[in-house]
Design brief:
13% of the residues lie in helices and 49% in strands. It is mainly β.
Length: 109
């Protein structure tokens, strides 16, 4: 995984692996899956469908929020984005980060 920042946009480049790589915005709790998520559509795909395990998939993050990043053969990672700040957080900090972002956006900071 590589992460690039261009002003307020974040670009996540993941290794392609049988279409199992993804970036999802976490929007709350889910009874069945634990996390309620909105899966992002890829921004760019640099791979050939026949080559199931070669190439990269790029995702673009523009909105503030908490994100789950899954790159097969790696552990899932979680990040929070607020303005120009994009930082890795632990699974245990997901809902605290969501609440902080909601509070800051509500207060207009």
């Amino acid at each position: 995984m590589t992460i690039e920042q261009d002003f307020n946009e974040i670009f996540i480049n993941l290794k392609h692996y049988d279409n199992k790589e993804y970036v999802a915005k976490i929007i709350g709790k889910d009874e069945k899956y634990g996390l309620k998520r909105e899966f992002l559509v890829s921004f760019c795909r640099d791979w050939i469908p026949i080559e199931k395990r070669k190439g990269t998939t790029t995702f673009r993050i523009k909105e503030n929020g908490v994100y789950e990043i899954n790159e097969p053969e790696e552990n899932r990672k979680y990040f929070s984005k607020l303005g120009f700040k994009f930082k890795e957080i632990s699974f245990d900090d997901i809902f605290q980060a969501l609440n902080e972002i909601k509070t800051i956006e509500k207060n207009g900071r």
